[in-house]
Amino acid sequence: MFDINIIRKDFPILNREVNGKPLVYLDNAATSQKPQIVIDSIVDYYSTYNANIHRGVHTLSQEATDVFEIARKKVQKHFNIKESKEVILTSGTTHSINIVANGYAEILQKGDEVIVSAMEHHSNIVPWQMLCERTGAVLKVIPMNSEGELILSEYEKLLSEKTKLVFVNHVSNALGTINPIEIIIEKAHEVNAAVLVDGAQACSHIKVDVQKIDVDYYVTSAHKMCGPTGVGMLYGKKELLNELQPYQGGGEMIKEVTFEKTTYADLPHKFEAGTPNISGGIAFGVAIDYLNEIGFDEIANYENELIAYATQQLLEIEGLKIYGTSQYKTSVISFNIEGIHPYDIGTIVDKLGIAVRTGHHCAQPIMEFYKIPGTVRASFSFYNTKEEVDVLVNAVKKAKMMLQ
Amino acid sequence: MFDINIIRKDFPILNREVNGKPLVYLDNAATSQKPQIVIDSIVDYYSTYNANIHRGVHTLSQEATDVFEIARKKVQKHFNIKESKEVILTSGTTHSINIVANGYAEILQKGDEVIVSAMEHHSNIVPWQMLCERTGAVLKVIPMNSEGELILSEYEKLLSEKTKLVFVNHVSNALGTINPIEIIIEKAHEVNAAVLVDGAQACSHIKVDVQKIDVDYYVTSAHKMCGPTGVGMLYGKKELLNELQPYQGGGEMIKEVTFEKTTYADLPHKFEAGTPNISGGIAFGVAIDYLNEIGFDEIANYENELIAYATQQLLEIEGLKIYGTSQYKTSVISFNIEGIHPYDIGTIVDKLGIAVRTGHHCAQPIMEFYKIPGTVRASFSFYNTKEEVDVLVNAVKKAKMMLQ
Amino acid sequence: MNIKEIQEELIDEFSMFDDWMERYEYMIELGKSLPLISEEQKSDDKLIKGCQSKVWLHAELNNDTISFTADSDAIITKGIIAILLRVFSNQKPEVILNANTDFIDEIGLKEHLSPTRANGLVSMIKQLKLYALAFQTQLNK
Amino acid sequence: MNIKEIQEELIDEFSMFDDWMERYEYMIELGKSLPLISEEQKSDDKLIKGCQSKVWLHAELNNDTISFTADSDAIITKGIIAILLRVFSNQKPEVILNANTDFIDEIGLKEHLSPTRANGLVSMIKQLKLYALAFQTQLNK
Ligand SMILES: Cc1ncc(COP(=O)(O)O)c(C=O)c1O
Ligand SMILES: Cc1ncc(COP(=O)(O)O)c(C=O)c1O
Question: Does pTM surpass 0.90?
Answer without folding.
Answer: yes
